[in-house]
Amino acid sequence: MQKLAHIVSEVKITFDSCNLYDVELTAEILYKLSKSARLLDLSILPKYATLVTPGRFYSEEEWDYILKLFVQPLIALLSRKNPPFRALDLGCSEILALHASDFLTVSSICTAQPQHLERLAFATVKQDPGHYPLGLIEPPLLEKCSALRVLTIDYDSLCDELLQTLQQLPLLRQLIVHVHGIDEDHFGLSEDAWANFRSKNPDAELHLTLVCAYEAVETLPTHILRPSMPLTHLKVLFCEKINCDALEYLSLHYKDTLRSLIWVDSMRIEEYRNIMELMMHTEQDPLVMMAWRCKKLQELIVHGYLLDPRNLVGVARLRGRELKVLEVSGVH
Fold this sequence. Notes:
Elements (H helix, E strand, L loop, with lengths): L9 E6 L4 H14 L7 E6 L13 H19 L8 E3 L4 H4 L2 H9 L10 E3 L28 E5 L5 H7 L7 E6 L11 H10 L4 E7 L8 H5 L6 E7 L6 H10 L6 E5 L7 H9 L5 H8 L5 E5 L5 H11 L5 E4 L4
């Protein structure tokens, strides 16, 4: 802080967000950095979903603490005109991402230069994936971010109108979406919206991640996935279910785009037989069909489920040297 804060252009702060001392030290560093005229890229990387404060969880004291010690320094950086700020990564922090609209609002005023923002990471990991406050982002707030190349965002904040705004950003290359719970008022995104987005942004990739999304994994092929999605990466983490209909959907609709599938659950020996029976009830192993149809598939990682070794050999033979990673759970 004393020797380098005024000269560095990129900073990543990794800290134990369940330790109040670490949180307070991080706040001190942020305050010092907010005075820097050279900082262009900042990543705040808490180790846990929780950001501990002296106040209670989501209490008025906690909001005041976060606002004063974290939000205001970030606003100072985003509102700076010269040199314009380039990238902000909130490290999947749930409480900081609730201020995403504030950050975008201050970067859109005339004194700042949002047209220089290249990367914004507002997607989160929830402390309680079944119950959490929604942080909505108004689509017009992103209109001026013409240089934006990477945007991470929660599915709760995504809608047809926001997707229409994003299709006006010519340099957008990665849209990374985190799915948690599915709010009853969220109607999903339409096929037309994704088709228009893909036609206007032919080079954009969609990375879709489900994190402890117990309801969303059930309705993945019916409520979330759409044929025109430019889906290149799907990651399903600890959703306690493998959805074979979703795997079949992937191989049918993303054969020209899908490059990576990661499906990870905890190991539960008592569930192995049920999973094997579920696989056998389909006409073909969906992973084999994916390897056959998806010509760009380079990575396949499945943990928590027992898979037929013969089918895994089939996957490897179908993809050949183009398959860079094949990783499954071993059973002893």
